[in-house]
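Contributing new records

If you add data, match the layout below exactly. Sequence lines come first and carry their own label; structure lines follow with theirs. Keep one chain per record. Anything else will be rejected by the validation script.
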Amino acid sequence: MGIIPNIKIEINTAQTMAIVDALSQLDTTLPSQWHKTTVSILEMVLEKLLKKQIANRHKTKSFKLELEYFQAYFLKEFLLKYNSVLDRHYVQVVINQLDQKLA
C-alpha cells in the first residue's frame, strides 16, 4: 500500500457482469498516449474483475473489490462516459460507490 489508500467497494455478480460488459466496449485503437494509458489501466481492472467474476460466480451475496486509487479513478471516469450513453442501473450503482470512496 502506498501513500494513498486503496479503494474498496462492495459489488455483486450482476454488477461485475455489467462492468465487464462495459469494459468489453473499450476502444483500443485510438493512437493517443492518454488513450493508451487509459486502456492499459482499465485492462488491469478488467483482469481483476474477471478473476473476481470466476471466484464468486456461485455467490449471491456482495463481495469486496479492492482497487488502487488510480484504477478506481479511471474506472469511474470510463463508466461515467459509458453510462451516459446506455444508462445501466448496475453500472450507476458502482459509479456512485466509486465517487463516494474517491472523494
